[in-house]
Design brief:
It is a single chain. By secondary structure, the chain is mainly beta. The strands form 3 sheets. Strands 2-1-6-5 form a 4-stranded mixed beta sheet, with helices on one face. Strands 3-4 form a two-stranded antiparallel sheet. The chain contains 2 helices and 8 strands. β3 and β4 form a beta hairpin.
Length: 129
């Protein structure tokens, strides 16, 4: 059996993906992959996702330069979530979020609501053209 056939794809042919920084353990982002994206990620050792809004493959960093080198690809016990162990490239420290922050998970729930707790490392206006 092909390793891709073991993935529990949803009804749209997608699987959720978590990108975790290999060295820090930081959860950098959440995205989706289709079969082709996961195959290319495994082949290239570079994160390739599926953009649901653009309905096409999204090579992480193709516009921003914030590429993710993939060191390890794992699946959970139900074979329905993929975990990528990555190194975030393109800025020091690495930027994964389109807001210019290190991680997409920069908001923390406080008693009065959600608050941004991580700084913007680079103005998004200068990242995307």
């Amino acid at each position: 059996m092909n390793w891709l056939d073991q993935i529990q794809w949803d009804d749209k042919g997608l699987v959720p993906v978590i990108a975790q920084e290999k060295d820090t353990g930081d959860v950098m982002m959440f995205a989706w992959m289709n079969r082709e994206a996961l195959q290319k990620t495994a082949e290239l050792k570079r994160a390739v996702y599926f953009s649901r809004s653009r309905n096409k493959l999204w090579f992480k960093g193709e516009e921003s330069g914030h590429v993710q080198t993939v060191h390890d690809i794992r699946i959970d016990c139900d074979n329905d979530v993929v975990l990528l162990k990555i190194t975030q490239l393109g800025h020091e420290p690495g930027i994964a979020c389109h807001t210019g922050r290190h991680s997409c998970f920069f908001q923390s729930l406080q008693s009065d609501g959600w608050h941004a707790t991580d700084p913007v490392l680079k103005d998004p206006e200068t990242i995307y053209k």
